[in-house]
Amino acid sequence: MQTGNYRFKKYFFIIFLSSIVLNSCGRKYSPEQLTYIHGVEKLRLEKDNYMKSAPDSPFQRDKNVSFHPLNYYPVDPDYVFHSKLFLYNIKDTVSVFGTKGEERKIVRFGYVTLNMDGKNFKLNVYQGNTKDGMEYYTIWYTDKTTGNDTYGVGRYLDFDLSRDKNYIYTIDFNMAYNPYCAYTPMYSCAIPRKEDHVDAAIKAGEKKFH
Asked: What are the Cα distances from residue 120, in Å, to 79, 146, 168, 200, 209?
């Protein structure tokens, strides 16, 4: 019961602090935006709890790595974009290399588009399969923060495919996260390809851990 009360107080303390920061920056957010910001902050707290104590967390699997809360940019609704998924006519199988040098094969499935800082960009959506045969879709990318504020390999965005061909997807960089190799060399993770670089500083989502 005490643990639950502590988490409850911690969550609202962070909301209180974030409200002070938002007000001090002089930005005014709509009630909907504030609800969104607080929702993302809550998810970040839940992820911290998972990473700290879940049996399959990299911090539980590698006892040589000490856990501390993950680092993030402040949640910013301006880094939420919307796009259709544009499928490639020819869905090439391409090579992606892991951080331990192994070659992986993945399908270059389609792409989404976004406009940032007055420039148009496209992000590839890849189709792959896990070791147990489960299909997944993902976005891997680098940007101008890579290797500076953010993890040097790059960051990931999960992508949930819709059967509706006209579906409008949300590309939310506040949800960008580091692969597990960002925390411990026990893991190998996919390195984004050169064509998956965004020539802009995406100051949203997860920062470097170390």
From this structure: 14, 19, 17, 10, 30
pLDDT at 194: 96
| Amino acid 190: pLDDT | 97
Which residues have C-beta within 8 Å of that of residue 188, sequence separation ≥ 6?
A: 98, 99, 100, 102, 181
Q: For residue 103, give every residue at least 6 positions away whose Cβ sits within 8 Å of its Cβ, in sequence order, or none.
A: 95, 96, 97
Q: Which residues of the chain have pLDDT under 50?
A: 1-24
76, two tokens = 């910013």
The Cα–Cα gap between 54 and 143 comes to 30
The full set of domain ranges for the chain reads 2-53, 77-196
- The percent of residues in the chain predicted with pLDDT above 70, rounded, is 88
Location of structure tokens 């670089």: 197
Cβ atoms 81, 175 nearer than 8 A? no
Pairing of strands 93-97, 119-129: unpaired
Q: Judge contact between 154 and 191, C-beta under 8 A.
A: yes
DSSP line for 55-122: TTSHHHH-TTS---PPPBPPP-GGGEEEE--EE-SS--EEEEEBTTS-EEEEEEEEEEEEEETTEEEE
The confidence score (pLDDT) of residue 133 equals 84
At 80-109, the pLDDT tens digits run 999 999 999 999 999 999 999 999 999 999
Q: Decide if 103 contacts 95 (C-beta within 8 A).
A: yes
